[in-house]
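Please annotate this fold before class:
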Amino acid sequence: MSTSLLKGQNCALSAAPVSLTVRAPGVAVDVSALLLNAQGRVRDDDDLVFYNHPQHDGVSIAGQTVTADLNRLPAAVTTVAVVVSIDPQQHGAVFTAAPHLTIAQPSSPTMTFTAPDFIAKETVVVLAELYRRGEGWKARAVGQGYASGLAGLATDYGVDIDDPGPQPPEKLLPTQTRTTATGTAVNLAKVESQAPALLEPARQASQVLVRSGLEGRRAAVYLVLDHDWHMEELYESFAVQAFAERVLALSANLDDDGTVPVIFSSGREPFLEEIRLDNYRGRIGQLHTQVDWGWGNVADAMRRAVTHYQESAAADPAFVVIQVGDEPWDKAEVRSLLQNSAALGVFWLFVGFGRGKLAFYKNLNASTSATFTNVAFYDASRNPGSVPGEQFYNGLVAAFSTWMKR
């Protein structure tokens, strides 16, 4: 008996050892594991378990199988990432069909996962993660590919490796820029050096900005996240983290500081932190556990964003992306804030995903008498991760680009 997982889904594990076996059709691969702390980084280079270092702190490698004795993992290890990489002897080989994963424990149903096929010349894949949840452990289907090879993986997780793997065909020096299809220069060197896994979405965002006439334009990007109790599954399934990563990749094109202020909207005072190119991996999961679940206080979160923006004395306009999963209980306050912020240089984009009702946001500008010229709504479906990259960014910037050109 087995259960198939979709990308982003998770399953509970018992306290017994768990084995994760990889099968990669049509290509020779190496399988490895990374032991990660609460910051999503290795403690030292011994936390990379691979064929030349096959066991460490309860995790071992045998061929294509990673085995983790969950009871032996040190308390400082909160995540074990299972990594599949193209054998470096296969010059020019990339993943097309995704590797298949089987997760097995004694006396428990077998879980399987096959990620969606890859199209961006990925040579390394983080296939799954084991992670602590309260007193227990869970497994999560990840399926995140890296076109930047082992060097990109090492940058994200803090590993010092000797072999950087295959290099991208257009390797850039830190001072170089990449030219878009229309000839406009976009500097993605910071993304390439600090967050190589975000390089492809940053390029997609760049192309959409150019087509929208926003090449070279600047804006301070903010992200507000709904922390209603009904959003728990979407935080748990990595959907909110993936959404935040896409917004960060957009921000890298609009604001080169590589930082997005993040505000969690819950029943109490909004919680403000930040997500950066150098700390984004697992960041939303780390932050949201510091916030109580409650009915989202959207108006208070909006006020917090305006206050932060005004205190920063930024010369560029603010682009505030507000993820909403249900209608606000403070509708009159939200409308009042939208009216009063029109002259402040703030654009509000409500992005709907989740399982709640969103009619209030959809209808903000439905009336012919609507006056919210600095407001738009984008329905990103129940799972924004399933929306292709350029289609997703078109939805984010379409109304914003019209507002910027007024």
DSSP finds ten helices and 21 strands in the chain. The radius of gyration is 22 Å.
